[in-house]
Specification:
The protein has about 400 residues and is an alpha/beta fold. It folds into two domains: about 180 residues, FAD/NAD(P)-binding domain, CATH 3.50.50.60; about 150 residues, 2-Layer Sandwich (D-Amino Acid Oxidase, Chain A, domain 2). The protein is about 25% helix and about 25% strand. The protein has an eight-stranded mixed β-sheet, with helices on both faces. A six-stranded mixed β-sheet has the order 8-2-1-12-19-18, sandwiched between helices. The protein has a three-stranded antiparallel β-sheet with strand order 9-10-11, with helices on one face. Helix 1 runs parallel beside helix 5 and helix 1 crosses helix 8. The protein is globular, with a radius of gyration of 21 Å. The structure holds flavin-adenine dinucleotide (FAD). Flavin-adenine dinucleotide binds next to helix 1, strand 13 and strand 17.
Length: about 400
């Protein structure tokens, strides 16, 4: 399929028999890490191995929402840095990532949720991230189309308002990072699946692919929803990750009506208006683990009902496309970023669940530093795999469940 075409990021490269590092997965985190390995550490003899095409996973399926107001002190600084990197990367990659910092509103529908949001806002402000608690009237001033009447299933009491958040064009991020990495000499091999990982004396030595063996002392697992299966079946290392399906959809294009990202954990729905005018909306996650990327009629009905209550002007608007992707969820909804244990040369950057788009730039930067130096940067220390065995889980589930199931 890709045989005759020149890839967008430059010339096609030959699959070599040895690289200094092999990255499994041409998604957001694989490409971001490859880019920073080459840019910051001069580690350019690197291969990104992608079984389908770059952006095949969550990278090309997400709803493009970015923000930095996560729940915990371990997470907020990472997401803050990631948010600040979008304009920097746009310039550096010379690629328009279409960052639109329109601001995010996470709606609250109960006093309990408002109290939870107070804690969240305090954590964000402590870390210098702009976040405010606003009441229903202020929500309406920001989004006139919002229904703040009492006569809906879950009346809106207020919102957590995060002005610096917004949306970034997801496929542009994938292509821009691929272009940036390739410009520095990284090889990107599409249509190439990793089928095994070689180990000798507790050290990574090679990667098997369906196009041949590659010798390498370092491997990064960045295979999104497939990471846990790869780690277990190829290395026998179990990761506490459940794979769930997330669905999303877009409406027909409309005139501008929604100039912020709005989300509600209670309605289990979020929406933003794309630059084309479509309302991109999502949040539904199938509750049972599975690897399907099928959508369901149940979800379409749910989404129509939720949007019709929150934004009544959308009644009668047509859904044009719907799709699904995989979310690799850890028990505390924070990622696993680790390296060198239990195998030397084995690095992991996975378990991103709902949050892997907004974080990819900063996570890639620090993961690259970890891989190049062998020392775990302070920013990544809370995200070890060991935290699960040591019962040191983070409270990021609160960033999602109590009031913000979105993105
Ligand atoms: C519908 C939906 C909406 C979302 N919305 C948001 C959002 O608004 N904001 C946000 O921050 N996040 C969002 N996410 C989550 C985000 O997309 C993911 O967290 C992110 O894509 C994870 O990035 P990744 O690089 O780890 O994995 P991916 O981007 O999934 O990339 C992994 C890649 O690995 C490849 N691969 C797998 N197995 C192999 C193998 N054996 N050999 C070679 N390659 C392999 C896959 O083909 C894939 O391309 C959403 C996800 C979905 C599905």
């Amino acid at each position: 399929m890709f045989g005759r075409h020149k890839p967008l990021w430059g010339k096609k490269t030959r699959l070599k028999s040895s690289y200094d590092a092999v990255i499994i997965g041409g998604g957001l985190h694989g490409l971001a890490t490859a880019y920073f390995l080459a840019r910051d550490h001069d580690l350019t003899n690197v291969a990104v191995i992608e079984k389908r095409y770059i952006g095949f996973g969550g990278g090309g399926r997400n709803t493009a929402i970015v923000r930095a107001n996560q729940r915990t002190s371990q997470n907020v600084p990472l997401y803050k840095e990631a948010l600040a990197l979008w304009p920097v990367l746009t310039r550096e990659l010379d690629y328009n990532l279409m960052f639109f910092n329109c601001g995010n509103l996470n709606l609250m529908h109960s006093e309990a949720a408002m109290n939870a949001a107070r804690m969240n806002v305090a954590t964000a402000q402590f870390h210098g991230v702009e976040s405010h608690l606003i009441d229903a009237k202020q929500c309406k001033e920001l989004i006139p189309a919002l229904n703040i009447s009492d006569d809906i299933t879950y009346p809106i009491l207020g919102a957590m308002y995060h002005p610096p958040g917004g949306i970034v064009r997801h496929d542009a991020v994938v292509w821009g990072l691929a272009k940036g990495a390739a410009r520095h000499g990284v090889h990107i091999h599409q249509q190439t699946a990793v089928t095994g990982i070689g180990v000798a004396n507790g050290q990574i030595v090679s990667v098997e692919t369906d196009r041949g063996k590659i010798h390498t002392p370092r491997v990064l697992l960045a295979a999104g929803g497939y990471s846990a299966a790869i780690s277990y079946h190829m290395l026998g290392i179990k990761l506490p990750i459940s794979v769930l399906t997330i669905q999303a959809m877009v409406t027909q294009p409309l005139k501008p009506i929604l100039n912020h990202v709005v989300s509600s954990g209670t309605y289990h729905a979020y929406a933003n208006q794309t630059l084309k005018g479509e309302i991109a909306t999502g949040a539904h996650m199938d509750p049972w683990p599975n690897y399907t990327t099928q959508t369901t009629a149940y979800y379409i009905k749910h989404q129509a009902e939720a949007l019709a209550e929150m934004l009544p002007c959308l009644r009668g608007v047509k859904f044009m496309r719907h799709w699904a992707g995989l979310a690799d969820m850890t028990p505390d909804m924070a990622p696993i970023m680790d390296g060198n244990a239990p195998l030397k040369g084995y690095f992991m950057n996975c378990g991103w669940g709902y949050f892997g788009f907004k974080s990819c730039a900063a996570a890639g930067k620090y993961m690259a530093r970890f891989m190049a130096t062998g020392n775990c940067p302070d920013m990544l220390k809370p995200f070890t795999l060991r935290r699960f065995a040591q019962h040191r889980l983070m409270g990021e589930t609160a960033a999602l469940m109590s009031y913000s199931p979105d993105n």
